[in-house]
Amino acid sequence: MTAQDGGSDAQANQDSATANDSGTDSESDADAAASGPTLGGCPMFGAQYAYNEDISQAPLDTGSATHLSTLKSVAPVIGLDYPGGEVYNIVPASQASVPVGTTSWYGFDTTGTFAYEADAGGATAPIPSNVQYENMTTPNSDHHMMVLQQGSCQLFEMYAYNPTSATTGWDVLIHWDLNSSSEQIPDALEVGSTTAAGTPLLPGVIWPDEVAAGVIEHAVDIVMPGSAIAKCQYVHPASDGAWSATGQFPYGARLRLKSTFDTSSFTGTQALVVIRALQKYGMFNTDISGETRSSFRLGGIGNSQTWVQADITQLTQLTWDDFDVVDLGTVYTMKGCN
Q: Which of 41, 168, 225, 245 could pair with 229 as two cysteines, CB 3.0-4.6 Å apart?
C-alpha cells in the first residue's frame, strides 16, 4: 500500500505567488457540462473523466441494497473533519523543477505514456520554495502535497506519513496530465497513488472556492474505515485494493445521493452545494480511515477558510439510507492477496 490516509484529511489553499488564480472556475452549468471543472486555467482532466461524469441517471449496481445494508452495519457514521488540512499550490509554467527524494515515482507524461520507478532515482517536480502541504508543521501524521503547473497543466502529487522536508523523505510522487480524460494506473502494477485506491487526490476534495461559486462540477471522495472496505478488490478508477481491510465495498466504488433526498432541514447554502454534487456526480471510496466513521475530504485553510461550520457540517446528517450504489462494472481482485 502506497498511502494509508487517515480520516483527518481535507483542506485547500494556493501558492501565494499565484493567489489570483483561485479555485474552480464556474461560469455556468452549461459551460460546466461542456468542458468540466477547471483550476488555475487548467482542466481537471477531461469532461469524460470518471470524476466529471454526470451519473444522475446511471443504473444501480445489482448489489446496491446489500452493500448499503453492510455499510449501515459495520460503519454507520458519515462524518466531516472540519476544518480539514489539504492544500494545493498553483505554480506558473516557468516554475523550475527540483529533485525530489521519494521511494517511488510514477505517472503519465503529456503523450499519455506511463512510467514507474520503484527507487525513484532522478525524480523531479516544480515545487516552489514557499510550497504548502497538509500537516507541514505536524510530524507523525499524513502529509499530502499537490502542485499544479500552469501552461502544460501537469499535476504533481506527493504523499508520506512523515517526510523530512518539502523535497525529501516522501513515499510517493505521482505525475498526472490534467489534459487527459483517461488517466488510469495500469491494473498489472496493483499500486495506489497519493490515495490508497490509486486515484488523483485533487479532484475529490471539496474546495471552499467552488462551494462559494455555487457549484461543484465533480465527484467527491469518501474515506472509509477498514471494516467497510473490501479486502483485495477494486473497481476503476481505482487501481489497487486494500490488503488489511475486512469489509465488502471495493475501492473505486461510487455512491450517488438519491434525487429524493429531503433538504428541508438544511440551512445556509454550503452543504446544499455538496448535496447537488452528490446527486449529479456522486462520491468515490478512495482511502482507508484510521477512524470508525467515513469522512469527506474538506479543503480550505488560511485566507481561503470560508466555511460556515454550522452550515457545512450539516453533511453529517447524511446516512447510507440516503444513497444508492452505482453499477460497479468490472471488479478486479489483486493477485496474491488473501
A: 245
Domain extents in the chain: 16-333
* Alpha-carbon span 44 to 25, nearest angstrom: 11
Distance CA 137, CA 321 (A): 39
User: Which CA distances in Å does 159 have to 101, 183, 186, 196?
Assistant: 12, 19, 20, 10
Contact 170, 159 (CB under 8 A): yes
Q: What is the pTM of this model?
A: 0.88
- What is the sign, positive or negative, of the torsion defined by CA atoms of 108, 112, 117, 121? negative
Strand spans (E) along the chain = 38-39, 42-43, 78-80, 88-91, 98-99, 102-108, 114-117, 124-125, 143-149, 154-160, 170-177, 220-225, 229-234, 249-251, 254-257, 283-289, 294-296, 323-325, 332-333
pLDDT digits (tens, 9 = 90+) for 122-132: 999 999 999 99
